[in-house]
Design a protein that fits this description.
single chain; mainly beta; 2 domains; four-stranded antiparallel beta sheet; three-stranded antiparallel beta sheet; 3 helices; 10 strands; globular
C-alpha cells in the first residue's frame, strides 16, 4: 500500500528543511504495511518546488508518480511548470512547453503502460486552442530496450528482443506485461530489422 499525506487539493509536501534540505519543497513517497507500519520513505526533487499530484501502480510492484516541477527534475525545464513522470525508483522524465504544464491523473492501461492526463498552457501535443488545453499521453512502464521488463536494459534483453522481432505471438505469451515496441530503438514507431543496430548501440551505451 502506498501512502502520502493528503491535502484538500493534491498532495501535501514536507518542506525540505524537515527532511534535510533547505530550498523549496520536494516530493516524498512512502510505503506502509497493512498494520500501518512504515516500510520506507523516500524523497526526491530539484532545487525548486516539486509537487506530486497522482499515483498509480506499475508492473512488478513498482509505482508511478506524476505532478509538476518548477525546476529541472528529470531534464531541463522548458519554462514555468513542467510535467514530471517517475517510475520509482527506476527512472524519471520531464516534459513541457514554455507555459505551465501539469499532470493531474495516472491510470495503468493494462498493456504495460500508463496514461497521463493534465493540462498545458502551451502547445504540448498540438497547437494550443486557447488558454489551458487538456493533454493525454501514454508512457511505457519500462525504458526502450528493456524487452524482458525487469527494469534494467542489459544483456538479458537480447533474446527477448529477437523473440519480439521474430515471433511476436510467442513473445506476447512469454512476456504478457511487456510492450514489444520497447524494441523500437530507432523510434520510427515499429519494431523491425532496422532496430537491430540501434539496439546494440544502446546496449553499449551509445544510443543514436
Amino acid at each position: 500500500m502506498l501512502l502520502t499525506e493528503f491535502a484538500p487539493i493534491g498532495f501535501k509536501h514536507l518542506p525540505k528543511e524537515r527532511l534535510g534540505l533547505l530550498v523549496g519543497q520536494d516530493v516524498f513517497l512512502g510505503r506502509y504495511d497493512s498494520a500501518g507500519n512504515r516500510v520506507w520513505i523516500s524523497q526526491f526533487g530539484s532545487s525548486e518546488n516539486d509537487y506530486a499530484l497522482a499515483l498509480a501502480p506499475a508492473g512488478a510492484g513498482g509505482v508511478m508518480v506524476a505532478g509538476y516541477t518548477h525546476g529541472s527534475l528529470g531534464g531541463p525545464n522548458a519554462g514555468g511548470r513542467d510535467v514530471f513522470l517517475a517510475r520509482y525508483p527506476l527512472w524519471i522524465r520531464q516534459f513541457g512547453t514554455s507555459s505551465d504544464d501539469v499532470a493531474y491523473a495516472l491510470a495503468p492501461d493494462g498493456a504495460g503502460g500508463v496514461m497521463v492526463a493534465g493540462y498545458t498552457g502551451g502547445s504540448l501535443g498540438g497547437p494550443n486552442a486557447g488558454r489551458n488545453d487538456a493533454f493525454l499521453a501514454r508512457f511505457s512502464f519500462f525504458d526502450r530496450g528493456d524487452l524482458n521488463c525487469d527494469g534494467v536494459f542489459n544483456g538479458a534483453d537480447i533474446d527477448p528482443f529477437f523473440l519480439a522481432l521474430g515471433d511476436p505471438a510467442v513473445y506476447a505469451a512469454q512476456f504478457p506485461n511487456c510492450d514489444p515496441l520497447l524494441g523500437d530503438m530507432n523510434r520510427d514507431g515499429r519494431l523491425d530489422g532496422a532496430d537491430i543496430d540501434p539496439f546494440f548501440f544502446c546496449l553499449g551505451g551509445k544510443c543514436p
